[in-house]
Amino acid sequence: MRALLDAQPHGRGERRASQPVRSLRGRRRRVTPVLLLAGAIVALDQITKLIALGRLSLGVPVPLIEGLLSLTLVLNPGLAFGLLGSIPPAWRWVVAALSLVALAVLARVALRVLPTGGWPGRLAIGLIFGGAVGNLIDRARFGAVVDFVDVHWHGWHWPAVNVADSAISIGVVLLALRLLRDGSSTPST
Questions:
Q1: CB neighbours of 10 closer than 8 A, spacing ≥ 6?
Q2: Taking the model in full, what pTM does it have?
Q3: What single-letter DSSP state applies at residue 58?
Q4: Residues 169/124, Cβ–Cβ less than 8 Å
Q5: Is 182 an annotated catalytic residue?
Q6: What is the mean pLDDT of the chain?
Q7: pLDDT at residue 4 above 50?
Q8: Is 45 a catalytic residue?
Q9: Taking phi first (over 0 means left), then psi (-120 to 50 degrees means alpha), and beta for anything else, what does residue 14 get?
Q10: Residue range 52-88, pLDDT digits in tens
Q11: Which residue among the candidates 45, 138, 147, 150 is catalytic per the annotation?
């Protein structure tokens, strides 16, 4: 029976010498740029939030482009775009826990995307991871996320955001486009 298994493609006894072995150097070459990008996003996010906290008053808009863009300091205890913003303070730990779960899921996705994802996948993971860590730092420090970029358009108002939120949004779009592209190249049966 063993000889039969050894003779079959992908049998238990087959050794796949032709498959490349992932070296530590190769892994490092794929992961290092992602971590550097994530670190840069965290640094830029935290620096801009520090400036906003030092120069803006809570809830007081400072117009940059009249009717379009202003800086308005907001502390968001909820999720992205103010969702669940009115939850009681005792429940805010749930939001922080959800953020940690999201980071764990992202790490799992990263393990699948980084080996084969090319630079768009790596860019997406770095942006999302950096943004998530930046906002998680705020939750740990303040119990809320510091937002300050406030966009208006013809009477329409988008909730205030920050560098981390922008990085997450861009990363999610890039990752979705990559996943859609990969899914569309798979032949249907």
A1: none
A2: 0.73
A3: B
A4: no
A5: no
A6: 79
A7: no
A8: no
A9: beta
A10: 999 999 999 999 999 899 999 999 886 666 665 566 6
A11: 147
